[in-house]
Amino acid sequence: MKREKDVVFYKSLLFKGGIIVLAALILSIVIGALDTYYLVMRQEQEAALKKTEDVCIIIKTAFKDETVEWFLDYCEKNYEKMRFLSLEESHDRDAMEAYRQTYEEAISTFVWDSDKITPEYLEKLSEEDQLLFAEVWYNGRLSGVDAGFNLQENDALDKTDLDYAVFKYIGNDQAFVYFGNSRFDSDGTEIGDVIPFTPEKHPIASQVIETGMTPHKVEHIRSTVDGKEYLYACWPLVLNGKVKAVAALQYPWSDTQKNLIDRILHVGGRVLAYLIFAFVILVIIFYMMVFRPIRKLQMQIREYSEKKDSEVVGNELLEINGRDDEVGSLSRDVTDLTKEVDRYVGEVCTLAEEKAAVGAALSVATQIQADALPKNFSEYSERKEFAFHAMMKPSLEVGGDFYDFFMIDDDHLALVIADVSDKGVPSALFMMKVQTMIRVLYKVDNRINHPSQLFEIINNSLDKNNTMGMFVTVWMGILEISTGKMACSNAGHEYPAILRADSDTDENGFSLYKVPHSPPIAVFSGVPFINEDIELHKGDVLFVYTDGVTEAADENAELFGETRMVTALNELRGESPEGIVNGMLDRIERFSGEGNQFDDITMLCLKYNGPS
User: Fold this and answer.
1) Cβ contact 524:570 at 8 Å
2) CA distance readout (Å), 504 to 88, 389, 393, 540
3) Lowest-confidence range among 306-320, 457-471, 532-546?
4) Is the pLDDT of residue 297 over 80?
5) Cβ atoms within 10 Å, residue 289
6) 3-state secondary structure of 431
7) CA-to-CA dists, residue 360 to 355, 426, 428, 553, angstroms
8) Do the Cβ atoms of 85 and 139 come closer than 8 Å?
9) DSSP designation for 612
10) pLDDT tens digits for 419-451?
11) Nearest-CA neighbor of 142 among 168, 107, 115, 178?
12) Which one of 199, 301, 405, 443 is most buried, by most CB atoms within 10 A?
C-alpha cells in the first residue's frame, strides 16, 4: 500500500482551526471596539444635549416665565451698568465679603417670593433697587449656568475647552449673549457680547430658534481655523410659549475622539495580547489532549496497513484506550477494528483456499462435461446424406444443457438435445446421468424402437430416486438416412424449427413445428410419451435448441424470443449447419450486449441432403 505523506503543520486541522478561532476573536474585538466607539459617541451627544437642557431649567427655576423674561430684557438694556462677580473675586476673601454684604442687603430689601416678585413689582422699584436685584439674581444664576455647562467628567476636556453661551438671535447673522464662559476663558463670551451666528451653518439651532422644537441630535462642525471637528448642541429657553433665548454648547469632538480611540486601542491591544496568550495555551492543550493521540492513532493505522498485526496496535494504543473521552472511544474502536480485520482476513484466506479448491474441482468438472459432449463432427464429413453441427455454452462453469448424436446403425442417426432444471453442478450431474441412460439403453435394450419408448423407461427410472425433484426436457430424433423419415418425441422441450427446401422463398422459410408436447421426464411416473415423427426431404434443415436461446435478455430485460430467432434463422438459411449455429450465437450475443447470460445456450442443426 502506498503510504501517504505526513500532513504539514499549516495544512493541519489544528492550524486551520486555530486560525479560525483567532480570526473570530480579533473580529469580536474589532466589533466590540466599534460598538464602544459609537456608544460613547452617542453618550457624548446625549450628554451635551442634557447640559444645554439643564441650563435652561436652571435659568427658569427662580421665578415665573414673565419675571425671567423681564429680567433678560433688563439685562439686555442695562448690562453696561451691572457689576458681576469674576472667578478671581470668587476666590478673594474681601471681594466675597463685599458680595455677601450686597447679597444680604438685597435679601433685606426684596421679598424673594416667586409669587410676589413679578414684572409689575420690579417696575415699581427704583433704578438702584432694580440694578441691585438684577446683579444679585444674575450672579446667582451665573454660578448655576456654569455648573450646568460643566463637562468635567470628560477626561479629554476641562472648562477652558468649552465654548458655551445663552444667547438671543438678533438677526443679520448676530446674536446677543446673556451668559457665557468668560469667567473661565479669557477668549470666552459674557453678557452684552454680540457674537456671529450664521443660520445656514447651524440648521438644527436655527430650527430650534424658529419653532422651539426639542432637538434630538447635535451638529458636527469643522473649524476653518484649526481644522478640528466640534460638537454643537443647543436647547431652547421657552418663556410664555416663545423662544426667548437658546443655550448652546460647543466643544472639540476631535480631542475626545482621539482620546477615546487611544483608550480603545490601548485596552483592545492588551485584551488581544491576553487572548493570543490564552490561544497559544489552548492550542498546546488541544495538541496534547487531542491531536497528539490522533496522530499516534494515524501512525498505528499506517503500521497496521503494512504489518497486519493487531496485537502490536493494541499494545501501542493501550494508554489511549484507557481514556474515557471521545479520543479513547475512537482508539478502542481502531483496536477492535484491527482485530476484526485480522479475523476477517483469516476467514478470507480460508475461503480463498476453499474457493481455489472448488475452482479447481469446477475446472475439472467443466472439462469432464465438455468431454462428455461429442465434438467429432469430422467423423461424419464423409456422409453426403446429411450434415450437422451443435454447440453448448453454459451460463456457469458447468451447465445443465446437453446435446448428443450417435449412429445406431449404418442407416440410423440419433440426435438429442436436452435441458435439465436448475443450473450448476447438480444439473450437470443430472444431465450426465440422463445422457448416459439414453446412449446405453438405446444400444442394449432391443425392445426400444422409438424415442417415446426410451423416454418412458428413463422417466419411470428417474422418478423413483429423484429426491431433489429435478426434471429434464428432451427432444430426440432418430433419422432413417435412406428415407428421410425421423422418429421424434418431445418431452416438454422447445418446438423445433424446420426449413423446407421446396418452400425456400422470401415469404417462406424456417417455421416452428408446433405439435402437442409430452411432459418433461421425471415429473410424472407412468405417463405415456407422444410420437412426433417428421419426414425430411432433400435440402430440408432442422434446428433444435434450448430455452437459453429464446430467453436471452438485453440490458433492459427484453427477451430475444421466438420471433427474433426465426428471423435470424431465415437470414442464415443459406449457411451450412455450422454457419447457422455460429451465426445464431453471434446474434444472441450482440442482442444481449452487456446483459448477463442467465441460462445455458445449446443448439443443434441438421441438414438432410437425401439418400446417396
Assistant:
1) no
2) 143, 21, 30, 9
3) 306-320
4) no
5) 12
6) helix
7) 8, 17, 16, 30
8) yes
9) -
10) 988 777 777 778 888 888 888 888 787 778 899
11) 178
12) 405
pLDDT tens column, 451-463: 999 999 999 888 7
- C-alpha 41/C-alpha 217 separation (Å) is 11
**486: confidence class by pLDDT, cuts 50, 70, 90:** very high
DSSP SS3 for 483: coil
- Residue 155, amino acid: D
Which three cell numbers, joined as nine digits, stand for 317? 494504543
Q: Starting from the edge strand earliest in sequence, which strands make up the sheet with 511-512, in order?
A: 386-393, 601-608, 541-545, 497-499, 511-512
Alpha helices by DSSP H, 124-252: 127-148, 203-211
> What whole-number distance in Å separates Cα of residue 368 and Cα of residue 370?
5
Yes or no: say if 512 and 495 are a contact pair by the CB < 8 Å rule: yes
Place of cell 464423409: 382
Find residue 231's DSSP bridge partners. 220, 251
Cβ-contact 18, 279 below 8 angstroms: yes
The pLDDT of residue 113: 66
- Alpha helices (H) in 373-500, listed in sequence order: 425-444, 451-464
pLDDT exceeds cutoff 70 at 324: yes
Span 336-366, pLDDT tens digits: 877 777 788 778 888 877 776 665 555 555 6
Identify the H or E element spanning 302: helix 292-307
Strand order in the sheet with 163-171: 194-196, 174-180, 163-171, 242-252, 229-239, 219-222
Asked if residues 516 and 555 have their Cβ atoms less than 8 Å apart, the reply is no
What pTM was computed for the model?
Answer: 0.47
Residue 567 grid coordinates? 428471423
